[in-house]
């Protein structure tokens, strides 16, 4: 299947859904689900069809440039990942968005974001890349501010930062065109090989700002928590799961497909090596957001900060340029997509059933009412922590092993500490929503509707499948690495086969299952406990005060008091300060225009006088 | 065949030795307090008694949390070499570590999470604020001791250039023990050992007098029996890990257990005499001295490589 | 452990384990509790008999009420007793739980604890010395051996009567009958 067909389906779907929204709501929902599932099917079908047949020039002459699409292993891998998460979110939206206004607009924007992202990964030259990048950015802006009110502010923050990134990218692209006269990605790879390291660094910096804003690397992350807390939950899943990871695709494309492995590794010297600085940025991106997440009480903000923090692992894995590390980085990207999307969907389900509550201090005990959502949340946090048997473990293991064997224990230490911070905050998420006493007002909450349960259970399945048999995605990743010139890994279906540092998930899985069975048998030996209601709880002999017997507010209070002074988001404050000052400067500039014709005449005359003076003094003209 | 024997044998050893250590701990503390103390098999009696009692359950997760914790601890044991060596020595046998090629020390660190997480889930499901406070303290304490512990582990891994525990033990047996090659790390690890075991002065998680034994507030009967067993196996795992990382493992099971006993006695002496600290003080302590020592040692190790 | 005990262990391990592993919930109502710290610490060391204090009723099997029982306390005693898992043994410590003791004519204390929860044994005296606790324990061992420490069974069988007695004091208990099962609780309601 050619990339053109995929893109036509994607854009046509977005348009048709908008039109169908004018006709009938069922038709609109049906078309939205159909087109997003059709995309998954189309992309899955085109697996392995790489090569020159699938390079299509769709505009042969645009200001002297060719606009082309192509399909290669990297593009296919990201495309299927985008399409699946988007399809799951669209299915989830069916009940979540029911009864909201402007649904035709919402669904068509969801599909347009999807189409934009598919366009990015399928585009064969940088001009199309830039066009699709802008389509994605602007439709994201519209979706973030969908709810109005404070969402408009969050959307504004996003689009301003995104525009700064786009400008940087445009500078990079123009410079590439001026230097080499082409924007074809395949040709650029060969052309750039001979250029100076200073120029390569400039290109990397320009592109890095654009990708860094999308990726939310630390100094460029501030749009993300606001955007998440204002966006609707199914879109948050897409936003954190895939959209942000377009930055990862960009980094992979520029660093390894265009600039090339050898150049990257030799860029800079000593401690000021490019990949070394990038990996330190990654490490800082892990630690600080993870601990800021600990302080959050809004479930979606908490997850948003984790979304930023987990990006650090991908950067760490990718920056070192070893086979193991890059494989870990790419694998972590899709793993992160699966469990963060799952967690956002779970929070969305809870929000849907409790009437929009996602304040972690006001929930509790929902495991009794929403068992499937609880299971989803449990699996999601296990993935986020990286517990064995989940996919997050395998990719983190790859990254840790890279860091340790490459001799960077300090980076590994930061990555580990980030993991432990993650454990604390996600347990708080799980506990405050699902465990403890069920408040009186949620006694009648019903379990999530089936269209919410299907995506949740699907992601749970994926997390366990890739955790026990990581060979499935790693084979595809190997294909990507072959095109970039990495040494092949000794992969097996269940992990890594290389002597003492091997990983065998199947063994661990069997061991855990057997141990689980043995312990269950042991439990059978003892007296069987009897089930009691939650009111029959130890309260030093008194009866349990209903609705008040729950510890969730300031769950980690001793730690908050110790770390919160150090964890202000100073970057965000700095941006606001800068924006404020800039506004002051613009205000000064505005004063020039007084509105009196006389002043303007004065300006003109004095300018002419200046020119005449200059001419008389130095005879320039 | 030897694989299957090992898979059965190593959790069994951990179970027996762990329960024995629990009894020994009570006896040692009693003797330090100038009491006579219970018989050394008292924990066995306790476990049998708990198994026979019909307790309550707050739902499936309340029980599954305990199962998860115990299963995780049992699997962790299988990844830790319990003595044995590849080199030829008198009275030596091959390494007793059934899952030695399944990911090494990194997997051990993550599997050790199953215990606290399982208990935390079960305690959360018990719908009791005492349990929640206990879990909150457990999580904070884990964060507090993991910071120095990670530095310690990373220093050992960079010193021996491997993430495989069996290889680290083998290197120590060829050259010098970890306690000599990374001495400050060993001191740091010993300082946080009580916190990892959850004994005094860091028994604030299950503080009976303050928060009604914390996460265990609602547990009784069979579940409590399994938690006791889990505690025993966790005790075994942590001390075995210390012996493997710093005392060169053992050429056979006997020497390994003797080294474990020595470490265990030292830790129990601390347990017998110190009072409990507050959680804030526990965090401050863990992030001060053990972290500083481990950090210095890691810097030295990295620079000398 | 002497030899004839091994046979007993093999015959009924649960009973023997219950006997030698009495985890005690000390209900510290009155002045009697002052005698308990010497019992569990260095001087008399109850731990050598396997008796240690526990913090919640869920973990214990020995319930010791050490002093007078006021009406308000009785509520907590009943609830704590009902939250302990079976089998469990109750011991009243001091004169007050037996017959009111020096509070025999008080308007606000109960005189006979065993009208509200079943009691397996008493330690008389005001105050009983710590040695008396050990005598009581050895006596409780004999009762367990003979199967006569069956308070928890009596509570199940006669729950309706106990509940009626309890509700005569408290017009309405603050909680629905937690124990032992719904059918008996329903019966008690009638």
Q: Just give the CATH class of chain C.
A: Alpha Beta
Count of DSSP H/I helices of chain C: 9
| Major sheet strand order of chain C | 2-1-3-4-5
Question: Helical proportion of chain C?
Answer: 40-55%
- The number of domains of chain B is 1
Rg of chain B over CA atoms, rounded to whole Å, is: 19 Å
Task: Describe it.
The complex is a heterotrimer of chains A (621), B (305) and C (190). Chain A has 621 residues and is mainly alpha-helical. Chain A has helices at residues 3-23, 25-45, 73-96, 103-122, 126-144, 150-180, 185-191, 197-215, 223-230, 233-243, 246-259, 261-265, 274-294, 299-319, 323-354, 371-385, 391-405, 409-434, 450-468, 471-484, 505-525, 557-563, 570-590, 597-618; strands at 56-62, 65-69, 491-492, 495-496, 503-504, 530-531. In chain A, the strands form two sheets. Chain A has a three-stranded antiparallel sheet. The termini of chain A are far apart. Chain B has 305 residues and is mainly alpha-helical. Chain B has one domain. The mean pLDDT of chain C is 82. By secondary structure, chain C is an alpha/beta fold. In chain C, strands 2-1-3-4-5 form a five-stranded parallel sheet. In chain C, helix 8 (159-169) packs across helix 9. The chains are: A mainly alpha (621), B mainly alpha (305), C alpha/beta (190). At the A-B interface, helix 16, helix 17, helix 18, strand 5 and helix 21 of A face helix 2, strand 1, helix 3, helix 4 and helix 5 of B.
């Amino acid at each position: 299947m050619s990339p053109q067909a995929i893109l036509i389906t994607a854009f046509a779907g977005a348009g048709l859904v908008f039109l169908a929204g004018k006709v009938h709501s069922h038709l609109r929902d049906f078309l939205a689900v159909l087109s997003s599932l059709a995309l998954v099917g189309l992309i899955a079908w085109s697996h392995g069809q790489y090569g020159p047949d699938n390079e299509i020039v769709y505009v042969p002459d645009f200001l002297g440039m060719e606009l082309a699409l192509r399909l290669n292993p990297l593009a296919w891998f990201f495309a299927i990942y985008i399409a699946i998460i988007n399809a799951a979110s669209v299915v989830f939206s069916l009940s979540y968005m029911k009864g909201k206004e402007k649904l035709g607009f919402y669904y068509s924007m969801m599909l347009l974001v999807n189409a934009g992202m598919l366009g990015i990964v399928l585009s064969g030259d940088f001009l199309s890349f830039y066009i699709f990048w802008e389509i994605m950015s602007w439709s994201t802006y519209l979706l973030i501010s969908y709810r109005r009110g404070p969402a408009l502010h969050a959307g504004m923050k996003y689009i301003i930062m995104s525009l700064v990134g786009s400008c940087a990218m445009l500078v990079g692209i123009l410079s590439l065109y001026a230097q080499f006269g082409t924007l074809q990605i395949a040709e650029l790879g060969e052309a750039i090989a001979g250029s100076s390291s200073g120029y390569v660094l400039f290109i990397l910096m320009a592109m890095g700002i654009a990708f860094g804003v999308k990726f939310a690397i630390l100094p460029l992350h501030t749009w993300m928590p606001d955007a998440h807390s204002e966006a609707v939950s199914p879109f948050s899943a897409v936003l954190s799961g895939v959209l942000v990871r377009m930055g990862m695709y960009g980094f992979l494309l520029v660093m390894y497909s265009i600039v090339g492995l050898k150049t990257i590794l030799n860029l800079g010297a000593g401690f000021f090596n490019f990949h070394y600085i990038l990996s330190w940025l990654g490490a800082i991106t892990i630690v600080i957001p993870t601990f800021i997440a600990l302080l959050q009480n809004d479930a979606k903000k908490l997850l948003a900060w984790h979304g930023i923090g987990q990006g650090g692992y991908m950067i760490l894995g990718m920056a070192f340029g070893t086979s193991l590390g890059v494989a870990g980085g790419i694998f972590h990207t899709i793993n992160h997509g699966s469990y963060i999307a799952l967690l956002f969907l779970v929070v969305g389900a809870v929000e849907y059933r409790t009437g929009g509550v996602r304040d972690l201090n006001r929930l509790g005990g929902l495991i009794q009412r929403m068992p499937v959502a609880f299971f989803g949340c449990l699996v999601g946090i296990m993935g986020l922590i990286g517990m064995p048997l989940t996919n997050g473990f395998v990719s983190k293991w790859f990254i840790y092993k890279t860091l340790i064997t490459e001799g960077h224990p300090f980076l590994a230490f930061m990555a580990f500490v980030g993991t432990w911070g993650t454990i604390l905050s996600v347990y708080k998420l799980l506990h405050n929503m699902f465990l403890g006493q069920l408040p009186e007002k949620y006694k009648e909450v019903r379990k999530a509707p089936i269209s919410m349960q299907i995506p949740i259970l699907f992601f749970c399945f994926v997390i366990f499948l890739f955790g026990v048999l990581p060979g499935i995605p790693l084979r595809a990743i190997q294909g990507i690495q072959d095109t970039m010139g990495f040494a092949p890994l000794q992969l097996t279906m269940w992990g890594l086969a290389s002597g003492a540092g091997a990983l065998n998930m199947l063994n661990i899985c069997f061991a855990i299952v057997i141990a689980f069975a043995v312990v269950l048998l042991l439990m059978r030996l003892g007296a069987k406990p009897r089930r009691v209601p939650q009111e029959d709880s130890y309260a030093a002999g008194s009866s349990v005060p209903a609705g008040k017997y729950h510890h969730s507010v300031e769950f980690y209070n001793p730690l908050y008091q110790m770390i919160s002074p150090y964890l202000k988001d100073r970057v965000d404050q700095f941006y606001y300060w800068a924006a404020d000052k800039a506004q002051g400067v613009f205000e000064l500039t505005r004063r020039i225009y007084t509105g009196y014709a006389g002043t303007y005449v004065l300006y003109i005359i004095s300018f002419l006088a200046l020119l005449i003076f200059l001419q008389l003094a130095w005879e320039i003209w | 065949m030897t694989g299957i024997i090992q898979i059965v044998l190593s959790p069994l050893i951990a179970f027996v030795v762990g329960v024995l250590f629990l009894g020994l701990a009570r006896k040692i503390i009693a003797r330090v307090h100038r009491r006579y103390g219970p018989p050394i098999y008292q924990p066995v009696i306790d476990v049998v008694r708990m198994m026979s009692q019909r307790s309550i359950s707050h739902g499936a997760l309340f029980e599954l949390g305990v199962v998860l914790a115990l299963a995780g601890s049992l699997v962790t044991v299988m990844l830790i070499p319990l003595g044995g060596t590849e080199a030829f020595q008198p009275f030596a046998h091959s390494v007793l570590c059934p899952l030695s090629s399944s990911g090494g020390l990194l997997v051990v660190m993550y599997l050790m999470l199953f215990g606290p997480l399982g208990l935390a889930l079960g305690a959360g499901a018990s719908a009791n604020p005492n349990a929640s406070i206990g879990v909150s303290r457990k999580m904070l304490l884990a964060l507090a001791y993991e910071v120095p512990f990670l530095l310690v582990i990373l220093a050992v891994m960079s010193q021996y250039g491997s993430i495989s525990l069996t290889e680290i033990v083998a290197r120590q047996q060829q050259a010098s023990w970890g306690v000599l090659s990374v001495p400050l790390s060993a001191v740091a690890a010993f300082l946080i050992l009580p916190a990892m075991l959850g004994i005094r002065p860091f028994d604030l998680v299950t503080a009976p007098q303050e928060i009604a034994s914390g996460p265990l507030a609602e547990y009784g009967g069979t579940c409590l029996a399994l938690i006791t067993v889990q505690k025993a196996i966790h005790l075994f795992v942590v001390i075995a890990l210390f012996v493997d990382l710093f005392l060169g493992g053992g050429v056979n099971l006997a020497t390994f257990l003797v080294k474990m006993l020595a470490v265990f006695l030292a830790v129990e002496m601390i347990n017998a005499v110190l009072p409990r600290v507050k959680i804030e003080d526990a965090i401050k302590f863990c992030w001060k001295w053990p972290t500083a020592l481990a950090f210095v040692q890691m810097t030295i190790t990295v620079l000398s490589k | 452990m002497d030899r004839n005990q091994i046979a007993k262990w093999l015959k009924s391990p649960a009973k023997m384990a219950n006997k030698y592993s009495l985890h005690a919930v000390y209900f510290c109502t009155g002045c009697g509790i002052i005698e308990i710290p010497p019992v569990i610490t260095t001087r008399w060391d109850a731990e050598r008999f396997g008796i240690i204090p526990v913090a919640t009723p869920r973990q214990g099997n020995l319930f010791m009420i050490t002093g007078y029982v006021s009406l308000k306390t009785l509520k907590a005693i009943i609830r704590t007793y009902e939250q302990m898992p079976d089998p469990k043994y109750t011991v009243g410590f001091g004169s007050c739980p037996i017959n009111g003791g020096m509070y025999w004519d008080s308007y606000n204390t109960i005189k006979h604890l065993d009208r509200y929860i079943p009691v397996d044994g008493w330690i008389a005296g005001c105050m009983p010395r710590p040695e008396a606790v050990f005598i009581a324990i050895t006596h409780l061992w004999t009762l367990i051996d003979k199967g006569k420490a069956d308070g928890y069974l009596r509570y199940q069988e006669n729950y309706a009567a106990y509940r009626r007695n309890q509700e005569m004091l408290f017009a309405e208990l603050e909680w629905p009958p937690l124990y032992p099962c719904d059918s008996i609780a329903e019966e008690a309601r009638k």
